[in-house]
Design a protein that fits this description.
Arc Repressor Mutant, subunit A; 2 domains; 7 helices
């Protein structure tokens, strides 16, 4: 038997074994993976009596790896999206009131901050990075910006009553 005939026979055996344990599509993928490993790493093994146990050992490792990966990803415990209830698009009135009160407290606290802190927060909300803010505030050290940011956040928290909630 030449190498192509041996691999064709081996492929059939591997596929039959894998199909008994996993779906047909997955078995095809595993078979292809095993044949790739045999070709790349064990090309010196040419005898069928050596290839069969080697290929099944590689297949077992591949199947174990696929099982561990599926467990890690939570694929065995997935629920169908169709079974989940639809979320209510409108917020609970209590949640809306709580959010409105928090925003009002935040706006009131922001007006009590100094100009530098208001500018710093404005630029952060615009998505500017600390080095960009450093340039805008014409500071030589970025650590100054970090310190101002920390102090401004502490001051804002104090004006909000010591809690973000």
């Amino acid at each position: 038997m030449n190498r192509d005939q041996i691999l064709a026979t081996l492929r059939e055996r591997i596929l039959a074994f894998a199909t008994l344990r996993v779906s047909r599509d997955r078995a095809e993928d595993l078979t292809q993976d095993v044949l790739t490993v045999l070709h790349e790493k064990y090309s010196q093994v040419t005898e069928l009596v050596e290839l069969v146990p080697l290929s099944f050992q590689v297949l077992r490792y591949k199947m174990l790896d696929a099982h561990r990966k599926a467990l890690r990803r939570g694929e065995y415990h997935q629920e169908s999206v169709e079974d989940q209830p639809l979320a209510d698009a409108s917020d609970n009135p209590m949640v809306q009131l709580d959010q409105k009160q928090r925003v009002d407290r935040l706006l009131t606290a922001m007006t009590q901050l100094g100009e530098r802190c208001r500018e710093l927060f404005k630029w952060k909300l615009e998505g500017k990075s600390f080095p960009e803010i450093q340039q805008l505030m014409k500071q030589t050290s970025i650590n100054t910006i970090y310190t101002w940011d920390l102090r401004c956040r502490r001051e804002l928290l104090t004006f909000m009553g010591g809690s973000w909630e």
